[in-house]
Specification:
By secondary structure, the protein is an alpha/beta fold. 40% of the residues lie in helices and 14% in strands.
């Protein structure tokens, strides 16, 4: 009886060297970072059409997602990327999933709609958002909207109060255009191009006169957009919006932070002639009346919200797009807003929240009555809390 010896090759699994393991970890972190920066684009089917949505982060978090909606003449990238890529914002980004919604036909690279296309109303766009939450399996969100996007998120919140835990509304105008606004808009559409009309909506007269790099980049981007026809449809739809009809019985049930820049179209030229060009008054008509109307609506909106859960943030040197021109200040305020909702309690206390805590004892009048609203007024430099003749809380940051 013979036995054959078979040669068996046995390989030993060798662990990676320390340097190799670190390199592999670095590659994995880089890949994750690239994915976070670029996001995952999805085409979400809703009862009213397809929405382009970009997801940053994971769907498994138990926290609400941060849901954004952009203004007219912008898309989710041009409106929010500088803010959410800001260094100090990364602490928030790492703790929450971001969901950026592009209004129909407004996303980068969108094809132009055919002539005669019926663009959905602002209410219809708001009705598309529940399908987005269902698609990503999120029960609640924290909404961040600018201009038209703020209106859309407001409409969504009013009809779906249980789905929204908080709202940050930048340059919100809750009212429909009055007859003076309508007449001014008609005149402006004859004397100004679509691009210039939208720029007057986005920027202050000072910014337009200075022709800053930001204004120039947006002018070029809008005027050369392949989907300019879609932008015009969105612009007309926004100008045809209805009143939200907010009152004490029909208002937001969640914490709200209203944000406006002190140099924004919504603050400039409301009662001042310094922003008007008297050499060419026709071009100022639409700007003047839209500014006046929007400023009044900001105050009116604030007066109709729950004073115990509403903050009004007026940002110094912020211009018409504070999320682009002052991302540090808005990040600071947003972090405090989230902390006030009970999230990120272990986060480092920001300069704004420290100032606010110090100022709480000053938010009462001499007779002990408290003001109806909280106003967070950020200055361009640090300093003491200025006196507040209106008895609202002023926080200098």
């Amino acid at each position: 009886m013979t036995s054959e010896m078979q040669e068996i090759a046995i390989t030993e699994d060798k662990p990676l060297l320390t340097g190799q393991a670190d390199a592999a970890k670095d590659v994995a972190e880089l890949a994750a970072r690239i994915l976070l920066d670029q996001g995952q684009e999805h085409s979400v089917e809703t009862p009213h059409g397809i929405l382009r949505v970009t997801l940053h982060g994971t769907r498994t978090t138990r926290r609400p997602a941060i849901l954004t909606c952009h203004d007219v003449g912008l898309d989710s990238k041009s409106c929010f990327s500088p803010l959410f890529k800001f260094d100090e914002m990364q602490e928030i980004v790492k703790n929450f999933t971001l969901i950026h919604i592009d209004a129909p036909g407004q996303e980068e690279g969108a094809s132009a709609y055919p002539p005669g296309y019926q663009y959905p109303s602002m209410e219809t766009v708001a009705e598309m958002i529940p399908a987005v939450l269902q698609f990503f399996n999120f029960r609640t969100v924290i909404g961040v909207g600018v201009g038209a996007g703020a209106y859309i998120l407001s409409k969504f919140t009013l009809t779906n109060p249980d789905s929204v835990e908080g709202l940050v509304l930048v340059n919100i105008d809750t009212n429909a255009k009055g007859w003076m606004d309508w007449a001014a808009h008609k005149l402006s559409s004859v004397t100004s191009s679509l691009t210039e009309q939208i720029l007057c909506h986005l920027f202050s007269q000072e910014e337009l006169s200075a022709n800053t790099d930001l204004v120039q980049s947006h002018r070029e981007r809008i005027s050369k957009a392949p989907n300019l026809a879609n932008i015009e449809l969105f612009w007309k739809t926004y100008n045809s919006r209805r009143d939200l009809n907010l009152d004490r019985n029909y208002t937001f049930k969640c914490p709200v932070m209203l944000v406006v820049g002190d140099q924004a179209p919504y603050e400039d030229a409301a009662v001042s002639s310094r922003s008007c060009n008297f050499d060419n008054p026709v071009k100022n008509v639409d700007f003047f009346f839209s500014c006046y109307s929007s400023c009044v609506h900001q105050v009116e909106c604030n007066s109709k919200l729950d004073p115990t859960s509403t903050s009004f943030l007026k940002m110094a040197d912020a211009g018409g797009l504070p999320q682009l021109t002052q991302p540090a200040k808005l990040t600071e305020a947003f972090k405090y807003f989230i902390q006030g909702m009970g999230y990120m309690a272990s986060s480092c206390m920001t300069r704004l929240s420290r100032s606010r805590t110090t100022s709480l004892s000053s938010s009462y009048s001499m007779d002990g009555s408290r003001s109806r609203s909280r106003t967070l007024s950020q200055g361009s430099q640090g300093g003491q809390m200025p006196p507040s003749p209106s008895q609202t809380m002023e926080v200098s940051c």
